[in-house]
Amino acid sequence: TQTLESVRLAGRTAPVGQGTLTLTTAAGSHDITIDAGNDSLEGLANAINAANRGVAASIVTDAAGARLVLK
Q1: How many CB atoms lie within 10 A of CB 11?
Q2: DSSP class of residue 18?
Q3: CA-to-CA dists, residue 12 to 1, 6, 19, 37, 42, angstroms
Q4: pLDDT per residue as tens digits for the range 19-44
Q5: Pairing between strand 19-25 and 57-62?
Q6: Furthest CA-CA distance within the chain
Q7: Distance of alpha carbon 21 from its chain centroid, rounded?
Q8: Which residue stretches of the chain are H helix?
């Protein structure tokens, strides 16, 4: 199992930037569109999880900020 984490941002609702995130796994590639409706760590995690492509997204928050963790 591989785990990846993003850079730290100020919080769960901090913008991540709009565009396309491509998830690539053994099952293939899947594009996640990041737009005004999901442009935050929380929105991105929800979009990744809703895609149901074998990648689980969660948000870890500590004193240094919040970050997206993918497993």
Answers
A1: 13
A2: S
A3: 25, 12, 18, 14, 5
A4: 999 999 988 999 999 999 999 999 99
A5: unpaired
A6: 36
A7: 9
A8: 41-51
